[in-house]
Specification:
Elements lengths: L5 E2 H8 L3 H10 L5 E2 L5 E3 L1 H8 L11 E13 L2 E8 L4 E7 H7 L6 E7 L2 E5 L1
Antiparallel strand pairs: 1-3, 2-3, 4-5, 4-7, 5-6, 7-8
Helix pairs in contact: 1-2
Length: about 120
């Protein structure tokens, strides 16, 4: 059964951001919102879970995760450079193998997660 959408203020509270930030993210396309019959913003519960980084079935020791959207994938030779715009105030650029980028099917506009462990950055989709 789908979860009930949240009001913009409740979604902002659960995300730990201000209502103004939620509105700005909506205008920037960083969060998906809908409108109710009174034309007020509502946020699907799944969208809040996506941005909060709800626990997934992946079992990794990495704790530093940056969820975001892929801006660009540049492939040259054996390497691929993947640029993500994160929901946190940061941009992460990872250099991974071309094979990994192709296996993950990475393309601009997709949601992905940058996993940071020591000096290495991996991309999860």
């Amino acid at each position: 059964m789908p979860k009930k959408p949240l009001s913009a203020s409740e979604a902002a509270r659960r995300l730990g951001i201000s209502l103004d930030t939620l509105r700005r993210w909506d205008r920037q396309g960083r969060i998906r919102t809908e409108r109710d019959a009174a034309n007020r913003r509502i946020v699907p519960a799944a969208e809040v879970e996506r941005l909060r980084g709800a626990p997934e079935e992946h079992a990794l020791s990495a704790r530093n995760r940056f969820r975001g959207r892929i801006l660009e994938v540049r492939v040259e030779g054996l390497l691929a450079q993947v640029e993500l715009e994160t929901t946190e105030p940061a941009r992460v650029v990872a250099v991974i193998t071309r094979e990994a980028a192709e296996q993950l099917g990475l393309e601009p506009g997709q949601d992905a997660t940058a996993l940071v462990k020591a000096t290495s950055v991996m991309v999860e989709r």
